[in-house]
Amino acid sequence: MSRTSRTTPNAAPSAPSVSSSAVSPAVPPLAGLPVAAPAVLQTGYGGPEVLRLSEHPLPHLEDTEVLVQVRAAGLARGTWHMMTGKPYLLRAAVGLRRPRQPVMGHNLAGTVAAVGAAVTRFRVGDEAYGIGRGSFAGFSAAPEGKVALKPVGLDFEQAAVVPVAGLTALQALDAAGVAAGMKVLVLGAAGGVGSFAVQMARAAGAEVVGACSAGKAEFVRSLGAAGIIDYAREDFAAAGPRFDAIIDLGGNPSPVRLRRALAPGGTAVLAGGEGGSRLTGSIFERQAAGAVLSLFGNRRLTGLMCRENHKDLERISALIEAGEVVPRIDSRYRLADVAEAMRRLESGGVCGSVVLVP
């Protein structure tokens, strides 16, 4: 595990009061912890108007889970998709009319408040970060295998924006085989995932080119990009084969264009993207097309779905503690201002990540 100091636990503080109706606990309360805490609940699919802050019972703690008192929760693009219920295929997995998990959010950083009977890697008082169930809340339950000790030197807000974005970036670079001396293009370089991908590729010794809007160019250069492509004015594929790896995180480029920009033997990883049909979205459609194109020639296009696991989080922790990766926060919002935070995420103007602070 990554290094961090362990704190001696005191009595867990009570959650701040939120005006709402009284609630009854779904399970017997854990010793020393409140029965309920503030949480962002999703009442259906749509815009920020489907979100409301209310008191909600603490989550049930499984034997293999840790209960985290959330100090900060990061917004991810996947959270926006969960709010809108788009593409519609998503609803088949999470709930047709509304999400089966009523509390929003996955990314978290905080203090371990309780541990399940089978947990061996954590104890009460540890400072942790990772992926939990309903992290936009005072408390969240997280599988032990999806949580790591918080990196030394990071505050809770910085740590909270790492998990999903950092894992996606790391695994995308792994899938592309990024190594020293390679030339790597990151599409969507200024976003939450992109800001990690640029730094991680640079740490691997690659020459990185970031595609972004002109207004975000200086931010992307500050991440370590050697070159910038203004996607509004330049076509990354126009100059022909030149990149050993392409990490596609934003926009909606066709697999044909991605393939055209790859050098012989190169790999494009499709790990994001918007648009496409309402049913499946662009990412699934483009991943399927990329798989077909990969059957011809020596240029490969591959899809990526983030694998949530503590071992990769610990790899990221090592990069952070070595000073090679620094989480970048665009803006901070209170839990009560989650609708405003989601609108900021929707705006397209974000450089780095957005974080909620309960």
UniProtKB/TrEMBL annotation:
Keyword Cell inner membrane: no
Superkingdom of the organism of origin: Bacteria
Annotated keywords: Oxidoreductase
GO MF term set: oxidoreductase activity; zinc ion binding
Renumbered residue ranges of the record's region Disordered: 1-23
Keyword NADP: no
Record field: compositional bias (Polar residues): 1-10
UniProt xrefs under CDD domains: MDR1
One Pfam short name: ADH_zinc_N_2
Biased composition (Low complexity): 11-23
Annotated ranges, domain Enoyl reductase (ER): 46-356
SMART domains: PKS_ER (SM00829)
This protein's name: NAD(P)-dependent alcohol dehydrogenase
Organism this protein belongs to: Arthrobacter sunyaminii
